[in-house]
Amino acid sequence: MEYLIGIQGPDFVLVAADNVAASSIIQMKHDYDKMFKLSEKILLLCVGEAGDTVQFAEYIQKNVQLYKMRNGYELSPAAAANFTRKNLADYLRSRTPYHVNLLLAGYDEADGPGLYYMDYLSALAKAPFAAHGYGAFLTLSILDRYYRPGDSALSLIRLNKRFILNLPSFTVRLIDKDGIHDMEKLPVAPGG
Amino acid sequence: KTCIYTHKQKHFTHFCSRKNRVPTLFSSTFSSLSPHQQPFQLSHGTTTLGFIFQDGVIAAADTRASCKGLICCPTSQKIMPIHSHLVVNTSGSGADCMLWERILTREMRLYQLRHRKRLSINGAAKLLSMMLHPFKDQNTKNVLSFGGRSGPRVCYVCSDGLQLKGEIISVGSGSPYAYAVLDDGWRWGMTVDEAVALAREAVFRATHWDAYSGNNVDLFHITAHGWRRRDREDLKEEYYRERERKRKKIKEREKERQKREGDELGEGDIYSVHCG
What we know:
- Chain A: InterPro entries: Ntn_hydrolases_N, Proteasome_beta2, Proteasome_bsu_CS, Proteasome_sua/b, Proteasome_suB-type.
- Chain A: Its main location: cytoplasm.
- Chain A is an alpha+beta fold.
- Chain A has helices at residues 50-71, 77-92, 134-146, 153-162; strands spanning 4-8, 12-18, 21-23, 26-29, 35-39, 42-48, 100-108, 112-118, 124-126, 129-132, 169-176, 179-182, 186-187.
- Chain A has one domain (2-185): 4-Layer Sandwich (Glutamine Phosphoribosylpyrophosphate, subunit 1, domain 1), CATH 3.60.20.
- Chain B has two domains: 2-29, no CATH class; 48-237, 4-Layer Sandwich (Glutamine Phosphoribosylpyrophosphate, subunit 1, domain 1).
- Chains A and B meet through strand 3, strand 4 and helix 1 of A and strand 9 and helix 4 of B.
């Protein structure tokens, strides 16, 4: 099952997604990237129905870039999140609904870091931490217990390492005022 | 009659049980959102594969077209060349495969005429994926194999929209068996003969275990100069060769065992050696 997680810190957002692309019982790829870069400081993480994820995420990605080309400045994370939600909601009651669960993470100059949780029924919520997938059941309670708003990046990365599930590896990225940074790819760590 | 036969391409529609989707938490609510109902269940009774190595791409497939319990055609062609450097393997409903192959060929040719350059494999995969998206319930899976200036590539496109680029791809009901053989024997630095032998072995093992794959194996080798097709090989021959090899091995083992026993007897009988 696919897994996404995002944690917001005081001046950064940390996001991780698993790397598996599966087709029924076969793991077709072990290094599949589920993060889509919407702009220099916004990442969209997308899981769900096989084709819908890429189709929808790329549609949003291109539209955000088009906005920048037309208007000369980029959409803020809040605006991008609301734009995504509107599109998902419009498609929901059409003949081709998109079955995708999203996390949108971004850094705004004015508002600071932001993490937005969106599910396939286009419910949008800004949250300090969020997760999708079966892994969410396990990790959300841990996050409740240990998350503190002023945490530094390092402690949150350690927190991240602690609950890696039965998935072989994860891509981890950090967004702060300097943009999107790739963290090391985390392999499976038995017992953290 | 439940199958439709066309003279040209020898593809058949076949109806078998559908492969299960990965169960999701909200599957019950999701099914009420899906627009189309399947008239009957479709499946992917085939083994096709493609992998890249240092000297290009190998594309291989079996040739059995099945229709529930009946083999409609033991000599169908599942690998179709699109242009001189691109080849597509298909699995799924035969009619859909044929249709999409032709549509893809047409679109790529139009692109080439309009833009005076060939579409790359990423472009072809994207194009096919976009064209298939409105027909998500059509249930075809394609492996595109390309060997060109940008190097050998193999790409998997599924009618539900999944598009993956990789080094080893296999689709169909026999694909798990083929994956096992390929994962074990694949190296980037293989020679052409080794790669062809690996592909043949993978298809052979898959056809052995999978009821819906069998008969012959088609092999294509694609390099920067274009694709080359090998003669269709009957897997029955391969099966008998395998049996011969096993028989020889057993004989050799027997001989070794007898030799060892003979030596042991010899060692135990000291007097015959030293006094003899």
